[in-house]
Amino acid sequence: MTETYYGSKSNPYEAIKVIRAWGLNFALGNVLKYISRHGKKPGVDALTDLKKARDYLNDEIEAIVKEMKG
After folding, report:
1. Are 31 and 51 in contact (CB under 8 A)?
2. Among 2, 12, 17, 28, which is most exposed with the fewest C-beta within 10 angstroms?
């Protein structure tokens, strides 16, 4: 069962559908997930979700920088 804060099965922009369609990796998929649900999940404030999205984005940036440095 898909939780409504991620979209719904009938919603073409449900987080998991977008993540798969865009071929996002784990970190970027989580960025999208946390941004798309911020302020919608009961018991979780928007700021918490945005901070989690930021953490995953920073992790992805660090991985790219490390890869570029070889």
Report:
1. no
2. 12
Helix (H) or strand (E) holding 47: helix 46-69
- 37 by Cβ neighbours in 10 Å (0-12 / 13-18 / 19+) ranks as buried
Q: Which tokens go with 56? A: 């995953």
pLDDT tens sequence for the chain (70 residues): 456 665 666 778 888 999 999 999 999 999 999 999 999 989 999 999 999 999 999 999 999 999 999 8
How far is the C-alpha of 39 from the C-alpha of 41, rounded, in Å? 6
